[in-house]
Amino acid sequence: MESESESGAAADTPPLETLSFHGDEEIIEVVELDPGPPDPDDLAQEMEDVDFEEEEEEEEGNEEGWVLEPQEGVVGSMEGPDDSEVTFALHSASVFCVSLDPKTNTLAVTGGEDDKAFVWRLSDGELLFECAGHKDSVTCAGFSHDSTLVATGDMSGLLKVWQVDTKEEVWSFEAGDLEWMEWHPRAPVLLAGTADGNTWMWKVPNGDCKTFQGPNCPATCGRVLPDGKRAVVGYEDGTIRIWDLKQGSPIHVLKGTEGHQGPLTCVATNQDGSLILTGSVDCQAQLVSATTGKVVGVFRPETVASQPNVGEGEESESNSVESLGFCSVMPLAAVGYLDGTLAIYDLSTQTLRHQCQHQSGIVQLLWEAGTAVVYTCSLDGIVRLWDARTGRLLTDYRGHTAEILDFALSKRALAPAVSRCSMSAAGWRAPSVAPILLSSGRASMGGLNPARASSWPSFTAHSILWDI
């Protein structure tokens, strides 16, 4: 996709009739970052015994594994200011994933290369329980919609679910090599994609199962649409399938010239589920109508950095889309690239609005709910906040001594939670709002997939909490 100022919107791209314009704001501004300091009725009917009652979770703890201010220079080599508030440091190897409980935003779960996952309290870093029994690196972890269950998955395909209040394991299953995992937004239903091309759906804890068979290649990313009746899955051969979760059949299939020309890396949906955004190693982001299954827009970066600063000792690789998402209050979409470019696109005009450059590759981005602020984390160990209306950097958060590789954003707090390449997880707190969590590792949700991590350097891992 090219900018309006240089070559205009693509002529063959149909307009989006349902989106409105938002003023006569300038279309593009390039921001160079200074390197210095600074989610159903049908499904419920199918699974009639699903209990939607919410239960209050206990917040008991029995161990301590946190420090308020980690010592400088202990992990990694990115020394500098530490803005963090809490550090969780029970992992003995890289932390690959991090997630916050959606109901209270008081609990975190982290998984790592040490084949372990931990559930801990965000306020003080106190360990609640360990999710033990995994056989490989834990690359996926997350809480159910009501925060009563927590699921963890490792690279070998072993998935486990625990009851949060009792701290007991209630379900487990061995699938193929795990690519992604996600909870249903309204029911205790877990979905996962595996390297054999299958997408799995289980009702937890009784284990009722459905499989959605894709092409003979890995299902690299997936997302349940907000209506809870459909899911979009991306595959290594570049195809995109929109599945009917009740019928178990594909509604739309995009392949060949309609699909991507490389493996998909990430997928996102807007709030009402009418639009889907997909990213790929072909460096394209495709805007797809969830109703018609047609591509209604294609976005490409304006320029590509000569060499992305992926990390010392790593082989250089071509640019790719690593993360993307929709703004909830304006017709904007953000796309993060491996070369460090954050591109803000106007969906009404399908033009590049702003281009914000990072010094290292972007791993993940998340939009703040109810605002036009987008958070990014990158391989330089910094979380940044950007105003998508102007393209300007608002602030950044530091404290990690190695690459950040995953993060999550507290809904109540309007603050992010991330993962990085050290043996701990960290968090920040915004002024007058709730905490942010930051964790470390070599994998990310919707970003640098563990399957692509064979050439990454080895890192240590921890989690940190910042006061924003």
Percent of residues in helices: under 10%
Question: What is the average per-residue confidence, as pLDDT, rounded to a whole number?
Answer: 78
CATH homologous superfamily?
YVTN repeat-like/Quinoprotein amine dehydrogenase
CATH first level: Mainly Beta
Largest sheet: 7 strands, mixed
In CATH terms, what is the fold-level topology?
A: Methylamine Dehydrogenase, Chain H
Count of β-strands: 37
Cα distance spanning the termini: 35 Å
Total separate domains: 1
Q: Based on CA inertia axes, which overall geometry fits?
A: globular
Put simply, the count of helices is 1
Low-confidence stretches: 1-28, 33-40, 50-77, 304-316, 428-435, 441-461
CATH architecture: 7 Propeller
What structural class do you assign from the helix and strand content?
mainly beta
Percent strand: 35-45%
Biased composition (Acidic residues): 39-63
Subcellular location: Cytoplasm
Region (Disordered): 1-65
Function: Plays a role in angiogenesis and cell migration. In smooth muscle cell migration, may act through the RhoA pathway.
